[in-house]
Amino acid sequence: MRTVLGLLTTVALCAGCSTPAPQPAANTAAADATAHQAHEAYVTAINSNNLDSLLDMLTEDVVFLSAHEPVMVGKAVVRPWLEAYLKAFKTHWDKPVQEFVVSGDWAFERYSYKSTDTPQAGGAVVEDTGWGLVIYHHDADGTWRVARDAWGPDHPLPAR
After folding, report:
1. Burial bucket for residue 136 (CB in 10 Å: 0-12, 13-18, 19+)
2. Is residue 93 within 8 Å of residue 118, measured between CB atoms?
3. Shortest CA distance to 51 belongs to which of 15, 104, 88?
4. Tens digit of pLDDT for each residue in 39-74?
5. Are β-strands 97-103 and 58-66 bridged in parallel, bridged antiparallel, or unpaired?
6. Is the pLDDT confidence value at 28 over 80?
7. Chain Cα centroid distance, residue 43
8. Which domains does the chain have, with CATH numbers?
9. DSSP letter string over 3-23?
10. Comparing 9-13, 75-79, 89-93, which segment has the lowest mean pLDDT?
């Protein structure tokens, strides 16, 4: 009897430790393709210069980490910053992807950028180049949104 109980216990423990079956390749490929589309949607929203389109791409708990700026946590905090930026400039960003990894409901993107900001009130165009890291989250409604965006220039600040 002791041997049977020991054997049943071992089988139960092994069954509990087994790894889940892998997702079918088609489902993984479809999820990856949808996640990659989030990059294009985000760049399109930025370049639309439309506040609502841009905000729709962000999670409620989004975090923006911009060089030389305080950390911005939450859509309610990011909104006035974006609103002021879009009132001040017509912007265009090129953001080539350097690396893109999807893991379940999260995707991680490393990118470079070139931004061109044309002052709405006139004046010299401001161009910048740099690097960034975006973390996307696959929200409950099926949309991939930006949960974190960190970026900074790839050159030193000009002398004051």
Report:
1. buried
2. no
3. 88
4. 999 999 999 999 999 999 999 999 999 998 999 999
5. unpaired
6. no
7. 11
8. 29-153 (3.10.450.50)
9. HHHHHHHHHHHHHHHPPPPPP
10. 9-13
